[in-house]
Design goal:
about 375 residues; mainly beta; Pectate Lyase C-like; 2 domains; 11-stranded parallel sheet; 28 strands; globular
Length: about 375
């Protein structure tokens, strides 16, 4: 069944608190029948206070694909369409249970500045997995975030877990540097076709300032972080102007392909807490690691802990970019450390614009590393 949020009393001129209660009433209807609520396009965003609970079986569906750079009202700097204007700083905007869906929506924090670091509002996550139960099957598709601090928090709490989490075609620029964090997902999370970029609000309110981007870089966080998961599937991920691209935690394994991490300090950091299945295949990617407090901290790849890392056709290069403060180079291509035995292979990788004498910095006496058909900064064949 499919009903409009207007049927439950949500109004463009309603108070955020009243609209939250009306929208919650609609969700409570949808959970009983597996229904969806239509977030009708409007020239005025729907003001809704944080604190919704998307109960099992319910969906919130709007009109949009991802709208990077923003929709804009013809006469005012605000988005139009299926837009929630979010208020409140004490709880996530929406907590999701099992068998739920958010699709085709714009999620806007109208009070978040674009150029004043001191005025940044540290909002709770926009979407958070339920912390008091196991959650199975959540679809987050075609969502665009404007002014979020932390977009998608899928870290289960305590003994609870989550499974079959799908994040696809989601765009934003989190001012904490954290776009998606998945933890304790034991049936294949999928992060697909996501785009993190400080220009996301450009057409609507303007691009984030250099000072704001530098402040995001300084938080030392990763746009995409995965912890305690089985066989994570990550494809077509992009970030610009966050400290890190992807953090692949010690208790994870999976595949990351077709990615671009631009203007970062660390592109990929892969760890491992076991020799058995802490293996990642990283392929068809590009990393521009060129920013950070010290040149020695700038690494396209960091590999530590146990397990295997297979890197295929991943290039790294560096240079200046006026959108943020840069060092214009990386220290190396990959830093390989830790005390445990690990294995790493590199095939067909182009390694450019690093400062160290060797593109691979290996401080671990237990690391077993092989490079074949790679090319160094002098465009010479590099093999090891």
């Amino acid at each position: 069944m499919h009903r409009s949020i207007c049927d439950f009393g949500v109004r463009p001129n309603g108070s955020p608190e009243a609209n939250r209660q009306c929208l919650q009433d609609g969700i409570d209807w949808a959970t009983e029948c597996g229904g969806s609520l239509w977030v009708a396009p409007s020239d005025t965003p729907w003001p809704v206070a944080a604190g919704l609970r998307l109960r099992a079986n319910a969906s919130l569906v709007g009109a949009h694909g991802p709208v990077g750079r923003g929709t804009r009202h013809p006469r005012a700097p605000r988005p139009v369409g299926s837009v929630f204007a979010i208020t409140g700083t004490d709880q996530p905007f929406v907590t999701v249970e099992s068998s739920t869906q958010l699709r085709g929506l714009q999620l806007w924090y109208p009070e978040q500045p674009v150029d004043d670091v001191a005025a940044i509002v540290e909002y709770p996550p926009t979407v958070q997995v339920a912390q008091d139960e196991n959650v199975y099957g959540v679809t987050l598709s075609c969502l665009t975030f404007f002014g979020e601090f932390f977009a998608l928090d899928f870290r289960s709490c305590g003994d609870h877990i989550n499974e079959q989490i799908l994040v696809e075609h989601c765009y934003g620029y989190p001012l904490s540097g954290r776009f998606v964090h998945v933890d304790r997902c034991y049936d294949i999370p999928r992060l697909l076709h996501c785009h993190v970029n400080p220009a996301n609000r450009r057409l609507m309110e303007g691009q984030y300032s250099r000072e704001v981007i530098d402040s995001v870089m300084g938080r030392g966080t990763y746009a995409y972080q995965i912890d305690h998961t089985d066989n994570a599937q990550c494809m077509d991920l992009f970030t610009f102007g966050t400290y890190g691209g992807a953090r692949l935690g010690p208790a994870t394994y999976g595949q990351l392909t077709n990615f671009n991490f631009d203007c970062v300090t660390v592109g990929l950091h892969k760890s491992g807490d076991s020799p058995f299945n802490r293996n990642w295949q990283l392929a068809q990617g590009s990393i521009i690691a060129n920013a950070g407090p010290r040149l020695e901290d700038v690494h396209p790849l960091i590999i530590d802990g146990q397990g295997h890392t297979a890197v295929t056709n991943v290039e790294a290069f560096s240079g200046p970019n006026g959108a943020l403060s840069t060092l214009d180079r990386s220290w190396d291509y990959a830093y390989i450390g830790g005390d445990e035995v690990l294995t790493a292979s590199f095939f067909g990788c182009r390694m450019r614009d690093y400062t160290a004498d060797d593109p691979l910095t290996i401080t671990s006496a237990s690391a077993r590393v092989r490079a074949v058909a790679c090319f160094d900064r002098e465009q010479q064949v590099y093999e090891r």
